[in-house]
Design goal:
Blueprint (H helix, E strand, L loop, with lengths): L5 H33 L9
Main location: mitochondrion
GO biological process, one term: protein insertion into mitochondrial outer membrane
Membrane topology: Single-pass membrane protein
Length: 47
Amino acid sequence: MVNFSEETKERISKVIDISRVAVHYGYLPLIIYLGYTYSEPRPQLFK
């Protein structure tokens, strides 16, 4: 197994934390966006 320095471990941890937050808040809007763009007929956001 590879031994990482403490600085590398902190950077990896920070990247994982940021990625987790991005996926947490971006997943549902992405699914909604894909639903609006790939559905036929396209639903209107405003009537």
